[in-house]
Amino acid sequence: MSRRRQKTNPWIQRWSRLLIAGIAVVGALGTAYLTFVKLTGGSAACPTEGCDRVLTSPYAELFGIPLTIFGCLAYTGMAVMAAGPLAVNPDRNKELRQKLEQWTKLLMFIGAVGLVVFSGYLMYLLAFEIGAACIYCLTSAAMTVTMLGLVLAGQEWDDPGQLWFTGAIVAVVAVTGSVVIYAQTNPNFAATNASVPGQAGASITTTSGPAETELAQWLDESGAVMYGAWWCSHCHTQKQLFGRQAAAEVPYIECDSDGQNPQVDVCRSAGITGFPTWEINGEMYSGTQSLETLATLTGYEGSRDFQN
Q: Given pLDDT bands bounded at 50, 70 and 90, which one contains residue 199?
């Protein structure tokens, strides 16, 4: 009596969805962490300063929303598409399982291509615009490439030619969309860099009240100085407290050679080791300071009706 041989799928096809889902979950958690850092103005756990440079750069936001939120949503979507069909028991509902696998595999391919292309564009920005190395960005790019490879190798494709045609269309749309969106959402950054050489950092989005402006002017008159770096998230938080108009009045010294009007030698002579650092009456104060604290330290006697 002959035995019927049961067809066994290659291991990559049996495990690809779980692997994709696992990578996507890691990506979602990583981008969620970076979103928290971005929204709270903290510093990312990173072996280099490049991560903070990226998070505080104008390219870290789209339409005023942290880019990491979009990344988290994209990774979450990939995880759902990869793991969704696995939740259906094939012994109980084989037809539904097969339909879900068929529907989601093309969506996973489109999503993976889009992520790879956008990650490639971000790598270009890191290398030629921001000029920083971010371990999170590099890891994310590697994960998107890995997911695309798993999607291609882990699924059966009936028409490879049509698949590559679809991938080419998605890639063109992703590249065009990335360039157009960044051009539209960062006009102030482009204008600033055109008029003053060097990196400007993230834009100040808050507005100043009379008290903030008066305090900034007093700080300048009293000889107080804020040492910072264009990529420093805490420096950006400090400027946000003053607001856009008053921040321009704050006596500020740029300590990074890639920033606008850098004074690196001055920072070295002052012994600056962290940002921001305030020098007030010959004393150094590290970290973001409240406007009330700055007013007290400098003997400011004006209005303290600060709105930020």
A: confident
Report the SS3 class of residue 255. Answer: coil
Strands (E), the chain: 61-62, 65-66, 225-228, 252-254, 277-280, 283-286
Q: What's the rounded Cα separation, in Å, for the pair 97 and 17?
A: 13
**Angle, CA of 152, 156 and 162, to the nearest 5°:** 70
Nearest to 256 by CA among 146, 149, 134, 132: 132
Q: Which of 27-36, 231-240, 260-269 has the lowest mean pLDDT?
A: 231-240
The domain ranges of the chain are: 11-185, 210-298
pLDDT tens figures, 49-73? 778 878 877 788 887 788 999 999 9
| CA 9 – CA 28 distance, rounded (Å) | 29
**pTM recorded for the entire structure:** 0.69
Domain 11-185: what homologous superfamily? VKOR domain (1.20.1440.130)
On the 0-12 / 13-18 / 19+ scale of CB atoms within 10 A, 224 is buried
Please provide residue 85's backbone torsions phi and psi, each rounded to the nearest 5 degrees.
-60, -25
Q: Which amino acid is at 196?
A: V
